[in-house]
From TrEMBL:
Pfam families attached to this UniProt entry: AraC_binding, HTH_18
SMART domains documented for this protein: HTH_ARAC (SM00342)
Protein name: AraC family transcriptional regulator
Originating organism: Paenibacillus piri
CDD domains for this protein: cupin_MmsR-like_N
Leader peptide range in chain numbering: none
Amino acid sequence: MAEPHHSVAFNPRPGKGELSVLFSGNSQTRPLHKVGPQVLDYYLVHYIVAGRGTFRCMGHEYHLERGGSFFIFPGELVSYESDETDPWSYRWVGFKGSRADEYLYALGISQQQPVHATQQYRKMNALFRQLELTLHRRQPHCDMQSQGYLRLLLAEYAAQRLETDVPVEQSSGIQQQVEQAIRWLTLQYHQPISIEQMAQSLGYHRTHLSKMFKQHTGMSPMNFLLKIRMERAKLLLQETLTIEQVASSVGFSDPLYFSKQFRKWFGRSPSDYRQDQSNNPYDCSR
């Protein structure tokens, strides 16, 4: 079994356009290494170089091995874990952009279809590796260069989907409505919003949207919004922010009400959670 290792490189000046890389890295994980459950506010793709593991998203479980990829969308509650006997080695890229959704959906990648398989091991591994090396070098134009490699990666995913003739499943009108609502909540969670505002902004009737949302996610829009806020708060509590600042950052004007909701959601206060994290900094299950 290969020795565990971890490497990551960050983009010092990520752009704000259609597509921009935030960071890239690679890991040889330990047996049963687990990440999450967590909610991110950016896109993240993992490409499996070797080994096996499990990815969980939207109530589904995907077992993946060499050549597989899993995509994480902003606002999705996800977790992933390495196999006990053959832990995976993977490369990853975190990115954002105004057209990221559009590009992924064109590849048939969505919250409902978050995994992809390929046989072009060397080519995919080389592209991920070159992207990470570009960020490590931290040259003046590394944002532009890393964007280029990310586009090449997406193009390779598209080419391999065509080669294997995998049909792209089109979302139904109702699925598209729910996906729109999820993206809206993910982008607006830090604001004092209501479901009425969301429905009006998206052009749907509140009752209809709430019903469809619960049918497809198993949660009401307000509970989904609270989930996003609470998972984001967990991440922020690991930073040097006050409880009041964390509350404000996730859409709560009253820090006492925020603390009450946090305790109700996780079974402990924000202060207790922060203390637990300080005592157990490597416990990824928290």
